[in-house]
Amino acid sequence: MQIFVFPTKMEMAQAAAARAAELLVDAIARQGQASFVAATGASQFEFLDGLTSTSGIDWSRTTMFHLDEYVGLPETHSASFRRYLKERLIDRVHPGVVHLIRGDAPDVQAECRRLNRLIADHDIDVAFVGIGENGHLAFNDPPADFEVEDPYIVVELDDDCRRQQMGEGWFASLDEMPRRAISMSIKQIMRSQAIVCTVPDGRKARAVYQCFTGEVSPFSPASILRQHARADIFLDADAASLLSQ
User: Fold this and answer.
1) What whole-number distance in Å separates Cα of residue 18 and Cα of residue 33?
2) Which of 59, 125, 136, 176 has the fewest CB atoms within 10 Å of its CB?
């Protein structure tokens, strides 16, 4: 794992996008195709803008998997991560194959099995992720399950996670927000050949400090990234503000 700190959110996002593009281009050159995992949320805005504006990536040779999605939320909802990815990534660059999580599927366990069959045929070249205010990785809130082998699982969202989503403006109230999500598991994220983790903003500083200075623990889920040989962590100065302490 490597940590990179940049003075501003925009510089951080540009550097993370350049690294992500490098990994995709390299995988396509070596294998003829690349498989990647896309994250969502406010932390990914500038990163995805930078990545989708980067030239030289043959997106037609890529396969995209989706990191997480709320259970029961239709794609038409403004907080739907499928909608987010279509607007900010898919409709801009048109990946060759896209596998989205149907959070409003009538049987969420069957949806997990469908996704698990699909991803079993792919080695993920790079996963794009962020870190939550509670240290979560994808929607694996603390204490996260570090042992479950299934690539996609149904998880309960804790109150800190739900308050973050409301605070970012995705929902008007906690009552409106789903209590469950389909999430890529910790083990599946860690199976990625490379990870690009983008973490802006001072509200993430405590989680960054706990994950990268304390013990590797399910109570700080993103701390597991310290055990990945090719995880690159991109922070702006605000997110990294407690590390020097």
Assistant:
1) 18
2) 176
Tell me the two tokens of residue 211.
């994950």
Instruction: Tell me, yes or no, whether 245 lies in a domain.
Output: no
Neighbours of 74 (CB within 10 A): 12
Count of CB atoms situated within 10 Å of the CB of 88: 18
pLDDT digits over 97-108, tens only? 999 999 999 999
* Structure token pair of residue 129: 């992720």
How many domains is the chain partitioned into structurally? 1
Share of the chain residues as helix, strand and coil, in percent rounded to the nearest 5: 40, 20, 40
Range of the domain at 232: 2-236
Cβ count near 22 (within 10 Å): 16
Q: What is the predicted pLDDT for the residue at 166?
A: 66
Sign of CA dihedral 67, 30, 62, 21: positive
Q: Which residues of 162-197 are buried (b: 16+ CB within 10 A; e: fewer)?
A: bebbbeeebbeeeeebbeebbbbbbbbbbebbbbbb
Task: Name residues of the chain where pLDDT drops below 50.
Answer: none
pTM for the whole structure: 0.94
Cα 207 to Cα 136: distance, rounded to the nearest angstrom: 9
Q: What is the pLDDT of residues 211-235, one digit of tens each?
A: 999 899 999 999 999 999 999 999 9
CA distance 121 to 124: 10
Radius of gyration, CA atoms only, the chain: 17
Could you tell me which of 18, 65, 32 has the C-alpha nearest to residue 191?
65
